[in-house]
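Key result, reporting period 2: structure in, sequence out.
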């Protein structure tokens, strides 16, 4: 829960109509983040913990903690696999 996360600094991004478009320099791939993905990207402008990310998302959206945790964990798993987001420190968990 206290895993420290951040944006992968090797991403070039732009905002279009409140959504984030990323270009992975390493993978040469574009990613079009949906509204929630874009919100997570904004929340990760500074390193933050998974717990803090959940707290901020639950304050913004009317969602239960369980649903927020499951959906966010699933999203982050994919984003980490695609190297959009990085785990800075897992020892905190």
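The corresponding designed sequence is given below.
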């Amino acid at each position: 829960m206290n895993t420290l996360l951040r944006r992968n600094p090797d991403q070039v991004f732009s905002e279009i109509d409140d959504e984030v478009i990323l270009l992975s320099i390493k993978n040469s791939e574009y990613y079009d983040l949906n509204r929630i993905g874009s919100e997570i990207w904004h929340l990760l402008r500074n390193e933050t913990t998974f717990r803090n990310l959940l707290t901020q998302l639950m304050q913004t959206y009317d969602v239960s903690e369980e649903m927020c945790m499951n959906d966010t964990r699933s999203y982050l798993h994919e984003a980490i696999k695609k190297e959009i987001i990085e785990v800075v420190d897992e020892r905190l968990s």
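The beta strands are 4-7, 11-16, 19-24, 29-32, 48-49, 85-89. The mean pLDDT is 91. This case is discussed further under Risks and Mitigation.
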